[in-house]
Specification:
610 residues; alpha/beta; Beta Polymerase, domain 2; 5-stranded mixed sheet; globular
Length: 610
């Protein structure tokens, strides 16, 4: 049994445990083991023979004695006792039900117990017959939402979010880099352009090992990567395969002399490339994945870098995020491409949660994580009371929490003044590592805020007196998504008119590949927000990416203030900011278009209402 199969079986066991309402720690242990195993370059089956040292499996991170025993059982018998026990209770096809909206483990278990529903087809038929209606919490509204969710799932099941595609691109690249002579690996296609979802993954590889006379060995290395589930094709310089999540990956190994032409070609988009080729033809040139050639004598004009190709066509270099044939060629020809925003431009993050509600880390831990990532300020914006499942705060708790936030901020400022604390620790560490770093010039600031719920009638679920005492108020819709267009637009407009609201959080409420936006008229809302001086959020979480790139362009055109936030629920979520920056770049935004590129005092002045 190979590693990819072991990993799949452990991951499926974790999902079955989830349906069985098992301990969360136990579920995570199986998932971590699966992730670790699929990245191992040595087949674990070689560690499982009768004469093998049992410590070999235990030396793998995340593999304890119990998990090692499971692996030995899988290798020896193709299954393991726990998996067989769970499959006696549940069907393997039930795992897919967890991917549908509203179908948590308890609901899946209840449906199986009550109606023996164990797959999507049976669930869809039961929902259409009305069989779900008598069950607890599964009324007509749930049934309608479920049927729409099944339709969306089938439509999106071959798509992968940008963070998922990025994770696998990184993992595959790490394995390819193990081969000597690999210098550069670049994701191409829709991932490089920053599209929020990808249908497949293109990786372009170059280095001495990719030159035509020696590339065969590198191709063989790629074709035997431990992450591969099914090998689809292996050619002279290309390997195609799928992973166990069915993501197709195409790896092309290319000589350095033509790497730029290939990178430009495989990045796309199709419409951008067609327009670029037409421009080349008008100049007596032809552009392909191999080179930009002069037609009259096939002389290579440019091939090694993308910049050479664009410059040879009398264009400024066009960043990948803009290559959608939306006016970027004209702007490049006229030298009017914007200087796009970069991650280094962001000074603060204005939407996040702590252990006070549904976050995983404390106020100080979130601050320290932000400092480590080079930010100058954050706003702690835990949930208000309407979001009961997130332990939302009432007015009294919100004010007490604000006091604690300000106390931690004051402690950090006091430490900064004495040249101690996390800001100076980071500076000294980076300096000792020889990295370019400037000493901190301002104390880190934690702003006291809240993410307040916009109720069904547009009122907010904390009092104006409470909101007036906070530095940052993010107003968001978390329920009532089925309201009509006019209702939900009026609802959000009423919230925006509240003088204490600074930011409209994730303004369309969508979940990428998971939930359609609620019906809100942005052609009405965005001009109103601009007039009222309320900022609109780009939520950088790849699960939301809201506002999306198209709506961000509209927000800029209407004069809206824009912020980018992570909506972090743990310290690791800060790293999702990079995905938000990609979407801002796709929207042609520059640093001055985004408020949290400002120092904290200027930011607060810009957000001030009235």
């Amino acid at each position: 049994m190979d590693n990819i199969t072991i990993a799949r079986l452990l991951d499926e066991t974790a999902a079955l445990l989830e349906i069985d309402a098992a301990d969360a720690f136990r579920i995570r242990s199986y998932r971590r083991a699966a992730e670790t195993i699929e990245q191992q370059t040595t087949q674990l089956s070689t560690f499982c023979g009768p004469d093998c040292d049992p410590k070999l499996l235990l030396a793998i991170p995340g593999i304890g004695k119990g998990m090692a025993a499971n692996i030995r059982d899988l290798v020896a018998t193709g299954t393991m006792p726990l998996r067989e026990e769970l499959l006696k209770k549940y069907k393997a096809s039930m795992l897919e039900l967890l991917r549908l909206p509203g179908m948590g483990p308890k609901t899946v278990s209840m449906l199986y117990s009550a109606l023996q529903i164990g797959d999507i087809e049976a669930l869809e038929e039961a929902a259409k017959r009305g069989d779900l209606l008598p069950l607890p919490r599964l009324g007509q509204k749930f049934t309608d939402k479920l049927l729409k969710g099944i339709e969306d799932y089938r439509k999106n099941s071959s798509r992968f979010r940008i963070d998922v595609a990025t994770e696998y691109a990184d993992r595959i690249s790490k394995l390819i880099f193990n081969f000597p002579g690999i210098e550069t690996i670049t994701p191409a296609g829709s991932l490089r352009r920053g599209r929020e979802t990808c249908g497949d993954l293109d990786l372009l590889v170059t280095g001495p090992a990719c030159e035509p006379d020696v590339v065969a060995a590198a191709v063989e290395h790629v074709a035997t990567l431990p992450l591969i589930d099914k090998l689809l094709a292996k050619g002279q310089n290309k390997v195609s395969f799928t992973l166990r999540n069915n993501l197709q990956v195409d790896v092309r190994l290319l000589p350095r002399a033509s790497y730029g032409a290939a990178l430009q070609y495989f990045t796309g988009s199709k419409h951008h490339n067609v327009a670029l080729r037409q421009r080349a033809i008008k100049r007596g040139l032809t552009l392909s994945e191999y080179a930009l050639l002069r037609l009259e004598d096939n002389k290579i004009i440019a091939a090694a870098t993308e910049a050479e190709i664009y410059n040879a066509l009398d264009l400024d270099y066009i960043p990948p995020e803009l290559r959608e044939n939306n006016g970027e060629l004209e702007a490049a020809a006229n030298h009017t491409l914007p200087v796009l925003i970069e991650r280094a431009d962001i000074r603060g993050d204005l939407h996040m949660h702590t252990t006070e509600t549904d976050g995983s880390n404390s106020i100080l831990e979130m601050a320290e994580a932000a400092i480590e990532r080079g930010l100058e300020y954050i706003a702690i914006t835990d949930h208000s009371k309407a979001l009961a499942m997130a332990s939302g705060m009432n007015d009294e708790r919100a004010l007490a929490h604000a006091a604690r936030i300000r106390s931690v901020s004051d402690e950090l400022a006091s430490a900064f003044a004495d040249k101690r604390g996390p800001q100076w620790d980071r500076y000294e560490r980076l300096k000792s590592e020889g990295k370019p770093v400037e000493p901190p010039t301002v104390p880190f600031r934690i702003l006291a805020g809240v993410e307040v719920d916009i109720l069904l009638d547009g009122s907010l679920d904390l009092t104006d007196d409470t909101l007036a005492q906070l530095d940052i108020v993010v107003a968001s819709v978390h329920s009532g998504f089925s309201q009509l267009l006019e209702e939900i637009t009026a609802r959000v407009l009423r919230a925006a008119e509240n003088p204490h609201v600074h930011i409209l959080g994730h303004p369309t409420g969508r979940k990428v590949l998971g939930r359609e936006p609620y019906k809100v008229d942005l052609s009405v809302l965005l001009p109103a927000a601009a007039r009222l001086g309320v900022a609109v959020e780009h939520n950088a979480s790849p699960a939301r990416s809201d506002l999306n790139d198209v709506n961000l362009r509209l927000a800029k055109q209407t004069g809206c203030k824009i912020v980018v936030n992570t909506d972090a629920h743990s310290i690791d979520d800060f790293d999702k900011l990079k995905f938000g920056i990609i979407q801002l770049r796709r929207a042609w935004l520059t640093a001055p278009d985004v408020l949290n590129t400002l120092p904290v005092d200027q930011l607060l002045a810009a957000l001030k209402r009235g």
